[in-house]
Description:
This protein is an alpha/beta fold. 31% of the residues lie in helices and 13% in strands.
Amino acid sequence: MGILSRSPTYGRRSEDNGMKLLATALFATAFGILLGLSFPSLWITKIWVPSNPKGAERLPPGIIASESDLYLRRLWGNPEEDLKKKPRYLVTFTVGYKQRQNIDACVKKFSDNFTIVLFHYDGRTSEWDDEFEWSKNVIHISVRKQTKWWYAKRFLHPDIVARYDYIFMWDEDLGVDHFDAEEYIHMVKKHGLEISQPGLDPEKGCTWQITKKREHVEVHKETDEKLEWCSNPPRPPCAAFVEIMAPVFSRDAWRCVWHMIQNDLVHGWGLDFALRRCVEEPAYEKIGIVDTQWIVHQFIPSLGSQGKEEDGKSPWQGVKDRCHMEWKMFERRVDEAEKEYFKSLQVQSPSNSTTLH
């Protein structure tokens, strides 16, 4: 048999095809580079979704993370395996180191179903880790000489705390010997409360009748006060009312309340009379006091010591005077905003004042 060999024609054809393929590839690469240099924003501007959150219109909707949480995560491993449990509730305390024993007792009343945040108004944070093991697992935010409403406005935006069903906004001077957080949540859900607080021990002092703990009931929503204060339908402080020392908000209610908090009015006085605006009517059915889980308000004026002596007034007196001033300012702002809104609609403003009158 003879020896097989390639034909000259076949070899030339293969070389020509290879050269054509190489030339095509080089041309496509060069064209792509040129196109990229000439029109760097071509691919970005192709994406435009007006329904996206403001500022994110150029992103594909599937990549947008418009809400967040306060869950603590690891610095290593698979992110999908970071969280063994996702707490459903959030509790915050505005604290000073002098009240650490009180806060220790409070924190121990909340299970691992709660994310706990401590807002430190005295700047002391590291000492807590040295004294309490649980302190290493909570979130510490330290800004000196601020109030819980200042912290809330800046760190608890509704989109940041959107994973939590209920948000507790508590002071540091609360006795919790007769309080169980999980049972409290059970009562709030059972009675459909969007805004609530634990009942207060009537023997330890109360500002308002409605917040006093009652016997033989789970929840109450109305009370008798001075006759001229109680209207029909019932309104604050006779109904649809909780105090600002230990309020608990549903996710939906908090989204409204956050928007109502004023940036410059840090003490929150007057908010309690306006909270009813943040639930559907009838508000007096969705705001109430939980009697089965009650607390003691200890009236420790610790935040007053963070004030400054001016014009012969003690630090505490200066703080108290501003509280009253802010109450009047807040009432005026709400009333004026409402009147302006109805004026723009060319309708008469209803009587919906946030005051006692």
